[in-house]
From TrEMBL:
Name recorded for this polypeptide: Oxidoreductase
GO MF annotations, alphabetized: acryloyl-CoA reductase (NADPH) activity
SUPFAM superfamilies linked: GroES-like, NAD(P)-binding Rossmann-fold domains
Source organism, top-level taxon: Bacteria
Length: 326
């Protein structure tokens, strides 16, 4: 028997509860894993609270991230004792995820845990960190260099944003961090490497088609009117990597930044990211992230505390990462 957080649906409401399950209850897969840690992402929060249509079938064990030790494998790529990490692939949405002491997954979804990281550190990075690395790489691929100017990061105090600030700073970029709680998060963001802290309300004002050019590039996790404002301020030949919609999935902008300033808008997806690209991103994270990153705000919780944290993360009340010890 093992413990799991299980989501059920009753009268179209999502109910989260701790249950004892057997290994035979797990869905099909190539690899059985003893889960050491999971983490709480914004998407997990939406799934657990029922505020978003994330879960595609019930019952469901949430958790889009996990790390642990292989105990059984029918795939030659993994052997008992191997340390692995899982992010994305619809796990926690359509396939039971990481908020349980055991998981059975497809081998194609797994990545060997980089030697530099332990399980807790991997979950302090998780989907958020992987996504941040892919966003940073998108700016590098767009030939945005540190000498080109400052990089703007929206939602900077969240999981993706905080890692993005750290990575950019480590690579020599000057970073302007946008946060809704500047008085609370400003010191942490400066510690992570931000040179400028900007209150989010500045970017919630209606955007002009074109505004003053301020940023060589940007990483946006918010979408909607915040992204519209960001686009209006990007330098000629700049680029914006986008990966989130915490502020909404609409985009009230015009074609002006794209056709008059040659601005590029690059979508970034980490869920279905191919193995090779995913593995390269994890390797780059192990090379770039400083030890000081793991001293940032991080809350380690037990499974019984997850529902409360899920409510908090959907209300914008979480700073840094929430790691779940299984």
């Amino acid at each position: 028997m093992f413990k799991a957080l299980v989501l059920e649906q009753e009268d179209k409401k999502t109910i989260a509860g701790i249950r004892q399950l057997e290994t035979s209850d797990l869905p099909e897969g190539d690899v059985l894993i003893n889960v050491d840690y999971s983490s709480l992402n914004y998407k997990d929060g939406l799934a657990i609270t029922g505020k978003g249509r994330i879960v595609r079938q019930f019952p469901m064990v949430p958790g889009v991230d996990l790390t642990g030790t292989v105990t059984e494998s029918s795939d030659d790529r993994y052997q008992a004792g191997d340390k692995v990490v899982l992010t994305g692939w619809g796990v926690g949405e359509g396939h039971w995820g990481g908020m349980a002491e055991k998981a059975r997954l497809k081998a194609d979804w797994l990545v060997p845990l980089p030697e530099k990281f332990d399980g807790k550190q991997a979950m302090m990075i998780g989907t958020a960190g992987l996504t941040a690395m892919l966003c940073v790489q998108a700016l590098i691929d767009a030939d945005i260099k540190p000498e080109d100017g400052e990089i703007l990061v929206t939602g900077a105090s969240g999981g993706v944003g905080s890692v993005a600030v750290t990575l950019l700073s480590q690579l020599g970029y000057k970073v302007a961090a946008v946060t809704g709680r500047a008085e609370v998060n400003g010191d942490l963001l400066k510690k992570l490497g931000a040179t400028t802290i900007i209150e989010r309300s500045v970017f919630e004002e209606p955007a002009r088609p074109l505004d003053k050019q301020l940023w060589a590039g940007a990483i946006d996790t918010v979408g909607s009117k915040v992204l519209a404002k960001v686009l209006s301020q990007i330098n000629y030949n700049g680029a914006v990597a986008i990966c989130g919609l915490a502020g909404g999935f609409d985009l009230p902008t015009t074609v002006m930044p794209f056709i008059l300033r040659n601005v590029r808008l690059q979508g970034v997806d980490s869920v279905m990211c191919p193995f090779e690209k995913r593995q390269q991103a994890w390797q780059r994270l192990s090379e770039i992230l400083p030890a000081s990153y793991f001293e940032q705000a991080c809350r380690e919780v037990e499974l019984e505390e997850v529902a409360e944290c899920a409510e908090a993360i959907t209300n914008g009340q979480i700073t840094g990462r929430v790691v779940i010890k299984l």
